[in-house]
Design brief:
Layout lengths: L22 E5 L6 E5 L4 E3 L6 E3 L7 E5 L6 E5 L4 E3 L6 E3 L6 E5 L6 E5 L4 E3 L6 E3 L5 H9 L1
Antiparallel strand pairs: 1-2, 3-4, 5-6, 7-8, 9-10, 11-12
InterPro entries: LSD1-like (IPR040319), Multihaem_cyt_sf (IPR036280), Znf_LSD1 (IPR005735)
Subcellular location: Nucleus
Keywords: Nucleus
Length: about 150
């Protein structure tokens, strides 16, 4: 039977749980399929792509983010500073949910708060989109002319 190439593969083969029935899951580092494994395993071999994915130590707190390159949902160990997407290989900045930055709206000068690492922020009052981390064009022109 051929292996499906669609983003939503067929259900995994039947799983035989360990003696106490405990199992867990993680995302394959190769093909991004969901893998089931017995609790206590240190790595899991994917039946579809044969990639070996390391299992985080027990009790490790996980977090999620959406890849900025291909919009795939990524899981990573909480506290990591960056996450490389296994689909498009984009390196994503991993920030905690409470990390925010501030910038003045490029149109109405209202102070805006946005998630740290964002590329732009839209003003809720005037709907102007302000680029973050890049000086406005008029600031660049002033610096070049001085």
């Amino acid at each position: 039977m051929p292996v499906p190439l669609a983003p939503y593969p067929s259900p995994p083969a039947p799983f035989t749980p360990s003696a106490n029935g405990s199992q867990s899951q993680l995302v394959c580092s190769g093909c991004v399929n969901l893998l089931l494994y017995p609790v206590g395993a240190t790595s899991v071999c994917c039946a579809v792509c044969k990639a070996v994915t390391s299992v985080p130590p027990p009790g490790t707190e996980m977090a999620q983010l959406v890849c900025g390159g291909c919009h795939t949902l990524l899981m990573y160990i909480r506290g990591a500073t960056s996450v490389k997407c296994s689909c498009c290989h984009t390196v994503n900045l991993a920030t905690e949910a409470n990390q925010v930055a501030q910038v003045n709206c490029g149109n109405c000068e209202l102070l805006l708060m946005y998630p740290y690492g964002a590329r732009s922020v839209k003003c809720a009052v005037c709907h102007f989109v302000t680029s973050v981390g890049v000086p406005p064009i008029n600031t660049l022109e002033q610096k070049l002319n001085s």
